[in-house]
Amino acid sequence: MPSVFIKTYGCQMNERDSEAVAAQLVLKGYVLAPSEKGADVILLNTCSVRDSAEQKALGKMRMLAADVRKHRPEVVLGFMGCMAQSMGRELIDQLPDVDLVIGTQKFHRTAEHLDAILSGRSEKVVDTEAERGSEGSIREHLLHGSGLSRSVTAFVSIMQGCNQHCTFCIVPFTRGEERSRLIEDIVHECQELASRGVREVTLLGQIVTSYGKREIGTRDGISAFVQLVEAVQAVDGIRRIRFTSPHPKGYGDDLIEAYARFPKLCESAHLPVQSGSDRILKLMHRGYTRERFEAIIEKLRAACPTMGITTDIIVGFPGETEADFEATLSLARAVEFDNAFLFKYSPRKGTPAVDLPGQIPQPVIEERHACLLQTVNQIIARKYQASVGSTVEILVEGPSRKNAARLEGRTRTNRIVVFEGSPRHVGQLMEVRIERAGNFTLYGDPAIVNLNGS
Ligand code: 5AD
Asked: Taking the model in full, what pTM does it have?
């Protein structure tokens, strides 16, 4: 039985895709290798969002080709996902040791292609064509998560692609046009996950606020996405719902009201802003102004004052002046994000921003990045500190990643809490008192244990 190791780069969608490919391969008789050492097949599931992510995967493959191949020439090496999609055969031209290149609409064919390569029927396979209906083909979940027990949380892919065409973004090229799965199919997947012990689902898509726009449409003023959340809310056994990522442009009042209407929907919103300058937002083709973004935040906080709000910001977009950057800094100070992922602008081939005037020199990008990082981190640290002494509900996920002797869970606002507990707590909702705040981690005491069922 051939063994497979999959290494994943990039976003949660990629993690989800890797898991589905792994599950598919296990069903077909493959075994999962714990590391690349000794694996018969090594697959890299790649990310193209920034050049650094591509370089990491290319470097890794070069290393594998030089190292693994020397001792075990029969090992099958493959690229999957976004870089596979955007580069295709060029990857094999650059790295002739690569046997397999699988695009983002072909994950469900991985086993078929590997079988052909391993049995000698095919020498090399490049499969990056668009395939209708592929958004519904990724359904399999691994039967067993890693760690103490089965997974308590799961990602559920609800759609593929994005039509927004932000001028910096490669996603429309790597993931294609928006295609949504049916509500029934997603609900069915959530029911199956619940029956296996999953208690929290994260609905995933590149732009979930566009979910089902064409296929389902708005009903009684309720967007297709909120209809989906309502349907998942009704799934027995699922205790918490999250989603990522929405786009501010499509963030309607129905979605803000959903937080009050659906008790399972966690008070956590990841809302990428990208810049605090209207001029830059326009050049990015984001479709909203700073004022509109701040109005959404205000409404979210009015609906739920404890809402955890996180964002993505790009620094050094072409044409970004000192004043534009100051506007981003002032937005970060005004909103006080609970977390912010900061990205240094990386030109992506084929995107309109590459040709914009005023490309920013790297040292300036570095300087702005460091400055913004310091600003947001100070705010985050203060907010984490302010939560000390409060009692919060967490869903216990498993052993702590930092210290396996402890357990960790997540608050509804999406903060990690580490505490002393026992394996039987895994999968339970419990209340803990926050005793101490560390770097992006809270330390809790479950002294007042209030088991809320499982
Ligand atoms: N350069 C830098 N950051 C980017 N992102 C997307 N494209 C680029 C790029 N070309 C960031 C955005 C997005 C996050 C997932 O990655 O902030 O929200």
From this structure: 0.95
Taking only the tens place, the pLDDT of each residue in 419-454 is 999 989 999 999 999 999 998 999 999 865 555 544
Positions in the chain whose pLDDT score sits under 50:
145-149, 453-454
- Using the mean position of ligand 1's atoms as its centre, give its distance from the Cα of residue 169 in Å: 6
Which atom number of ligand 1 is nearest to the Cα of residue 346? 1
- Contact between residue 167 and residue 212 where contact means Cβ atoms under 8 Å apart: no
- 415 exposure class (CB count in 10 Å sphere: 0-12, 13-18, 19+): buried
Read off the pLDDT of residues 131-143 as tens digits, 9 standing for 90 and up.
989 988 878 887 6
Using a 6 Å CB cutoff, which residues line ligand 1? 49-50, 168-169, 272, 274, 312, 314, 343, 345-346, 348
Closest among 77, 83, 110 to 14, alpha carbons compared: 83
What tokens does 405 get?
């002797």
125 sits in which H/E element: strand 125-127
pLDDT at 139: 81
CA distances from 378 to 106, 267, 433 (A): 43, 22, 23
Query: Cα separation of 7 and 65, whole Å?
Result: 15
State the Cα–Cα distance between residues 442 and 251, nearest whole angstrom.
Answer: 30
